[in-house]
Amino acid sequence: MTINYTHQNFGEIDLGAHAEAAFCEYSKYVTQDRALPDIRDGLKPVHRRILFSMYELNNTFNKPYKKSARIIGDVLGKYHPHGDSACYGSLVRMTQPWVMSAPLADGQGNWGDTDKNSAAAMRYTEVRLSRVSNGLMDDLKTETVSWKPNYDGSEKEPEVLPARFPNLVINGVEGIGIGMASSIPPHHPVEAMNCVLALLEGRKSGEAVPTEKLMALMPAPDFPTGGVVYALENYQQVWELGQGSVRIRAEWEEELIEGRKCIVIKSLPYGVSPSDALIQVNQARRPHPETGQIALRGITGERDEGDSDGLRLVFEVNYGVEPEIALNELCNLPNSCFDISVSYNMNVIDQMEPVSIGLRQAFDRFIDFREDVVTKRSTKLLSDAKSRMHILDGFIKALDKMDQTIAMIRNNPKQSDAKAALIEFLEIDALQASKILEMTLGKLTQGEVSNYKREHEKCALEVADLEDILRNRSRLLDVIREETEAQIEIFLSETSEQGAKLYEMRRSQWTHEEMRLSKADQIPREYCSVILSQQGFTRRISAEELKEQRRGTQGTQQIELAKRDSIALATECFSHDVLAFVTSLGRIAFAKAYEIDTSLRGQHIHNLVKLDTAQDEKVIQIVSIEDEMVEHASQLQLVLATKRGMIKRTNFSLFNPKVSRTVKAIRLSEGDEVAFFGVNRESDVITLASSGNKVVRFTLSEIRETSRTSRGVMAMNLDCDAHIVSCSVVKAEAIERALIGFVSKSGQLKITQLAHYRQTKRKAKGVTAMKLAEKDQILSAFTLDESELQTLDVVSTSKKGKMNRVNLGSFRVMNRMTQGVKFVSMKDKDELISAYLVRGEKENPVDEIDEAIAPDSGQVTS
């Protein structure tokens, strides 16, 4: 049968308006009835319904356990028409002591574990209310809260539970609604209750309690899994606005296991599973599948030694690495399992509306709620006490005239007649007469008469006390304080399965000290060398790794080179210096020295700086810049010299070494490239050496300051085939005690007084540097103070990757026109491609050094 809707009049609606209204209605339902907790009892509807259902089933802490399936079935059938798995998941959460600061349910059976293994099915587990949860429902039967019908109107359920402790703060909450979410970490129960006591005293005295005092009582969140809470600088904002975050780090200790230093983790941050932590460390120790980099070098092995006594993760520390440095490597891993951020986003339901609150407002609203509960309870108890007194008045009147009362009852044919006679005879009302008629003969003894009188006196005292509570707010606050102190005693009496007190002390430690170490803090502060291969692989080598050797040795392998690759550049620096990478296109990029890999394979330069591969841009020079120079950039000059003898200086403040980017530093002529880069003062003297065996020196003030992208001016008048191979800078006042050294490609070295080379003007041809054998060329030049001759080493690198280190004290100072001496042997057509100075091995790398003559050398590319 086909139904024709053509002539049906359904009316018209705006689809957009209808969809908007329907979505808003749905959003409101999800937010209020599922996602966010109530500000008063800190519970979402599903948790409240589970607890109330267990209470209705008399499934309390002092009664036997009941099957979880029975509880969930009762909840779904009466109050919560949703999925059973989600409802059971909510019950599971309330039983887990590693999730809840104060668990509201006591489970028996497999309820999961910290490794995020699921609980057993509900048909296998058993549960009952915990002792603590009694504080949520003790006042349910005294008309303290409003009730509402369930989803089908067949049952009634409480709109809120009359909590005696601030469950919202103590157990926290996680909830995601539509357009709104809530995140409140757990806190220590006793600390939270002490805040309640402090605010009660403030209300009683009429004085506002400073937030600082409350922060002293509850200085940080307290996580049931332990850890160390820090980064508390925004914690006051959490108290006032409910927004902010803290960090929590794993607790650890150092142990020596089988002669090896190990990090032993005793607790992980809240919500982190041990298996996730082990997997993360295992993956971080392996080379990245794309870049080949190893994120974690301080750890060589990991294992789980935890048992029923608690968590114990053991991480073996690499030789030569301090455990604290290795731990910070763990904590600085991306999305680290050992150091996490925990956010506060305190959105709750207050008077049927979603609101954002702070911790202070949460406590204030809880105390408001407690005042309301105690007031309603007192009103109910007062009404009950007065009703009982009224009945007792009738009993006492009847028993005072017992014989007449009995005779009157017996002489009336009907109960209604006896009731009317009693009302008239004893001057009582109908209710009192009915209760007298319901009395048994056993109540007519003389002892019972005395009991009624004592009970009447007791009720009279109770009525007076309750009226005082309702009339006097100070008295009302005293009652709340007494109940709060009683609840604290309940928390303090809670014990674990092993008998230990659960809430005597905090589970999480806290500190205002900064615990996160930056990568710079983790790197040992030492002198090191940086080398770069022709194919762009670079490595940082510590000073300890590069040992001093005797004259004439071949050196040691310091980087694994690919086939047909060779060393192009090498320089000395401090591990925390800024490195300037000068490119063949006249651009400069900056990076910290410690960012360079220390593995034997090294890393590709593209992982550090951005190069224009389309124009075959390459790094042709690496220069170190001290941090102090970066901080005083406006007082310094950036000096660049090219192979074809051009030179320029620009104010260093026009560059930003703190930003990782590649910027234009000089406009180069075709075929020209940068031969020298330095950061110096205008009064310094620059010395340039050419491949034509010439040396020229003049002050930087002879060069006018230009813009960042300018071409510069001529520095040295070069012969046709000559080019600049090395530059160095000396302070003007140090010329007389300065030495200059020359190294040739064949391995010859000569040291001479710098003053023996006369100072010239800019654009001069210069004077002869040293005697050279046929076809030999000057590789590099360096300057030093004569007092440093015994404390500096010269490090050379050959084309085949051999590095050598020789102390300059092995060489005597010669005349200007001498040939020099052999300091490194070359074999198999090998030749030097780099030579530079480093501090001697006996020097303290963190001692202050004389900056008048900074050991400096230019670089040459083959």
What does this structure look like?
Helices cover 28% and strands 25% of the residues. By secondary structure, it is an alpha+beta fold. It folds into four domains: 43-162, Topoisomerase II, domain 5 (Alpha-Beta Complex), CATH 3.90.199.10; 251-337, Gyrase A, domain 2 (2-Layer Sandwich), CATH 3.30.1360; 375-493, Topoisomerase, domain 3; 523-857, 6 Propeller (Neuraminidase). The strands form twelve sheets. Strands 34, 35, 37, 40, 41 and 43 form a six-stranded mixed beta sheet that branches. Strands 14-9-8-17 form a four-stranded mixed beta sheet. Strands 10-11-13-12 form a four-stranded antiparallel beta sheet, covered by helices on one side. The protein is elongated and about 150 Å long. The N and C termini lie far apart (93 Å). Mean pLDDT is 85; it is low at 843-855 and 857-862.
Second CATH tier, the architecture of the largest domain:
6 Propeller
Let me know the number of strands. 43
Radius of gyration: 43 Å
Strand content range = 15-25%
Mind telling me the CATH class of the largest domain? Mainly Beta
Rounded average pLDDT: 85
How far apart lie the N and C ends?
93 Å
Provide the CATH superfamily of the largest domain. Answer: DNA gyrase/topoisomerase IV, subunit A, C-terminal
Anisotropy-based shape: elongated
Count of alpha/pi helices: 19
Helix fraction, binned, reads 25-40%
- Uncertain segments are 843-855, 857-862
Number of domains: 4
- Look up the CATH topology of the largest domain: Neuraminidase
Largest sheet data: 6 strands, mixed
What structural class should be given to the helix and strand makeup?
alpha+beta
GO molecular function: ATP binding; DNA binding; DNA topoisomerase type II (double strand cut, ATP-hydrolyzing) activity
EC number: 5.6.2.2
Enzyme class: isomerase
Keywords: DNA-binding, Isomerase, Topoisomerase
